[in-house]
Design goal:
It comes from Aspergillus lucknowensis. With 250 residues, this protein is an alpha/beta fold. Helices cover 50% and strands 12% of the residues.
């Protein structure tokens, strides 16, 4: 079996605590859209997270249209996507913080030079770059090793579609079995699993032990190989996956 040579990382709430900031901005726009459609439902950022965590704004708007049975024109949707990107980036550049312990593990990996490193996100490339730059993580990734389902593909999509992981594998010149990824959401984990990539399920950015336990179970049920509650567990989690990857019994 091939050994692990590449580590992918989701960005939002995996490397950078960005989801709550992003969903605050998304809620404002979602409510504006719903009001224009004469739909009385209104969202808070927290409610949007519950319904749509792991999806980018484009994916969220597709789901919203299906849920409330209305249709935006392509031009309207693109206008809102651009507006959301600007609003979210402004919030991130003002307030974003790294996930606890993530930067320390990235620094160790970067200094060891044992693995190639890349970011694989659903979010727009400008947003991902703004996030990792704000928290000082951009120095750990080559500029062209940051991939976005919203921006990097010929046809924009969102996790759980595996397209962005398949694209990242091709761009990095890797096979799925040489790769591990860290994901915090159901849609992200599904995207990687559908691309046959081993998943470390990270639950440390969820609030409260009950929510962490619930997400750990959901990610395990999907097929995540191992669950990580804090980034200081990363070396142990990686070693566990590498042990399985090289085991002749598998």
């Amino acid at each position: 079996m091939p050994k692990i040579t590449e580590i992918f990382f989701d960005c939002d709430n995996t490397l950078v605590l960005s989801e709550e900031l992003a969903f605050e901005a998304c809620a404002d726009l979602a409510n504006e859209i719903l009001e224009k459609q004469d739909i009385t439902v209104r969202y808070t950022g927290d409610q949007l997270i519950q319904d749509f965590v792991g999806q980018n704004f484009r994916g969220m708007m597709v789901s919203l249209q299906a849920k409330f049975k209305f249709e935006l024109s392509k031009e309207e949707l693109e206008g809102y996507v651009k507006k959301e990107e600007d609003k979210v980036i402004a919030k991130l550049l003002e307030k974003a913080q790294p996930c606890v312990g993530a930067s320390e593990q990235l620094e160790k990996l970067f200094e060891e030079k044992k693995y190639d490193l890349a970011v694989v996100s659903s979010s727009a490339l400008r947003r991902v770059r703004a996030s990792i730059q704000k928290v000082g993580q951009d120095k750990y990734f080559d500029y062209d090793m940051v991939f976005s389902a919203a921006t990097s593909l010929p046809k924009p999509t969102s996790k759980p579609d595996p397209a962005i992981y398949l694209h990242a594998l091709e761009a990095c010149g890797k096979k799925a079995e040489e790769t591990v990824t860290v994901e915090d959401s159901v849609s992200g984990a599904l995207s990687a699993i559908r691309a046959n990539i081993a998943v470390i399920g990270y639950v440390g950015s969820y609030h409260g032990e009950e929510k962490q336990a619930e997400m750990a179970q959901r990610l395990t049920d999907l097929g995540a190989r191992v669950i990580m509650k804090h980034w200081n567990e990363f070396p142990k989690c990686l070693k566990e996956i590498e042990g399985r990857a090289i085991s002749p019994a598998l």
